[in-house]
Amino acid sequence: MKVLVTGVTGQLGYDCVRELEKRGIEVRGVSSRDFSLTDPVGMQNYMEAYRPDAVIHCAAYTAVDKAEDEPEICEAINAEGTRQLAMICRDLDCKMLYISTDYVFPGVGEAYYEPDDIKDPCNAYGRSKLHGEEAVLELLEKYFIVRISWVFGINGKNFIRTMLKLAETHKELTVVNDQIGSPTYTRDLAVLLADMVQSDKYGMYHATNEGVCSWAELAAETFRQAGKDVKVTPVPSSAYPTKAVRPKNSRLSKDCLEKAGFKRLPKWQDAVKRYLKEIKEN
Ligand SMILES: NC(=O)c1ccc[n+]([C@@H]2O[C@H](COP(=O)([O-])OP(=O)(O)OC[C@H]3O[C@@H](n4cnc5c(N)ncnc54)[C@H](OP(=O)(O)O)[C@@H]3O)[C@@H](O)[C@H]2O)c1
């Protein structure tokens, strides 16, 4: 089996390549240096030359606030780029695994979202990722759509890294406590994604580490485990106005994983522990 992973210079793509290599699967990781998602001809030429059996599509425009100022660029990469890639996958009879986000949901209430629940993104990034999903659903039969949230991994910036950096200069931090979701360690997720592309259990999935928390709880747990003496004061989102609205409820139901015979990911506190160890070792 031959797998192409987009977004290798990002958090998730990097770990997907590492996981597939570990399994002895032939894999190639690509970034915008190899082809841009906004360049259909370059993408087609690359794909026709490599001819993968599966694509794990991690690459995306991920600057959520900036997307409010340049929604066309975000849409061109996340929606149109995904549509082009899906068309090529269809022509090459190649499986496609598209990474999506909790941001496709309206993010209200307290219930866990099931994969088929009503979509209504509250920002431009979320809309572009939803349009990417729609393209995959429309064009492909051999697809996986995997919605994830609150990502952290060794190869990039993320909330935990930011908290550790702030701990160097702060004894007290205010962090929002009215957005609830599940952190996702890319190293854990990569194991599941590799299992998926090696299977033919196509469909729509949610995948995050187990358990839910607020950003304030994630910060406090990070400091506790890292042995940092930083006091976390919980505040509402209104104390931190951002250009893009964030969903308050990012609870994703993962029952779909068990139903398909996939294993759920470990608890988020355990993932944080292993991530801090990984940072230390690097
Ligand atoms: N981060 C989160 O909290 C989060 C939450 C939910 C879902 N997701 C989704 O999870 C996936 C992985 O996220 P991540 O945090 O690993 O992303 P990331 O670290 O921001 O990396 C983004 C990747 O996309 C590539 N890329 C950007 N624009 C491109 C273009 N025009 N053509 C080709 N490649 C391009 C980048 O390559 P270059 O280095 O070449 O620019 C980079 O490798 C994304 O699909 C994202 O939407 C993320």
TrEMBL record:
Record gene name: rfbD
Enzyme Commission numbers on file: 1.1.1.133
Function text: Catalyzes the reduction of dTDP-6-deoxy-L-lyxo-4-hexulose to yield dTDP-L-rhamnose.
GO molecular function: dTDP-4-dehydrorhamnose reductase activity
SUPFAM superfamilies in alphabetical order: NAD(P)-binding Rossmann-fold domains
NADP listed as a keyword: yes
Domain of life: Bacteria
Upper taxonomic lineage: Bacteria, Bacillati, Bacillota, Negativicutes, Selenomonadales
GO biological process: dTDP-rhamnose biosynthetic process
Protein name according to UniProt: dTDP-4-dehydrorhamnose reductase
PANTHER family in alphabetical order: DTDP-4-DEHYDRORHAMNOSE REDUCTASE, METHIONINE ADENOSYLTRANSFERASE 2 SUBUNIT BETA
